[in-house]
Design a protein that fits this description.
The protein is α/β, with parallel strands linked by helices and about 230 residues long. The protein starts with a helix and ends with a helix. The chain binds pyridoxal-5'-phosphate. Pyridoxal-5'-phosphate binds next to strand 8 and helix 9. It holds the Pfam family Ala_racemase_N.
Length: about 230
Amino acid sequence: MSTLEQNYQRVTQRLINACQQSGRQPGEVRLLAVSKTKPADMVERCYQLGQRSFGENYLQDAEAKIAALQHLNEIEWHFIGPIQSNKTRPIATHFQWVETVCRDKIARRLNDQRPDDMAPLNVLLQVNVSGEPQKAGISLADIPALAQLIEQLPRLTLRGLMCIPENTADEAALAAQFAHMKHAWQQLQQQYPQVDTLSMGMSADLELAVAQGSSEVRIGTDIFGARG
Ligand SMILES: *Cc1c(COP(=O)(O)O)cnc(C)c1O
């Protein structure tokens, strides 16, 4: 078995265990394989193992891979990096999901640039749930206004929320941040029934995030190895 295959099986098993420990069905939580900086052939091998959703942060790197892997019919690309307003067109053209929307202007541009012959672009709002000043994302209080704007944009579909919590070993602090996200997400769902995605949890906090209601975890290094 290759290293990639071993890693992939270990991560998928870890996710299954986390779901079982939380009384959840394994299929309730999507695994997003974060393939940033990794070559297209590695993504393809991971696809052959059964993985379908891949996360990318860097546009140039991602565009080349997406072009090289067009023959993989069921592949689904998620943009999870910071978005500069002059870079919205390639995101709107090449991705099925954008998880890092946190400004009105970016939302409007993605809507205007989404090609008519593609399905609407699935959008998550990035929330700065820890309130760290240097971190991207809107505050919990700003969710309703941005959600309302996106709801009015026909080429975007609001699917939920995403966060990168504080980088801390304090499990109680992390659990509280995840719980805030879950609460905000449930409120959003009441208003917008198509909202079904809560993207939270990475390698270090996967179990905690799943226990707190995550519907998508984002894992890079533990699948593809360290980035050079
Ligand atoms: C890189 C990245 C990940 C994955 O991080 P790893 O440490 O490689 O598992 C998850 N989410 C976001 C937003 C990232 O940028």
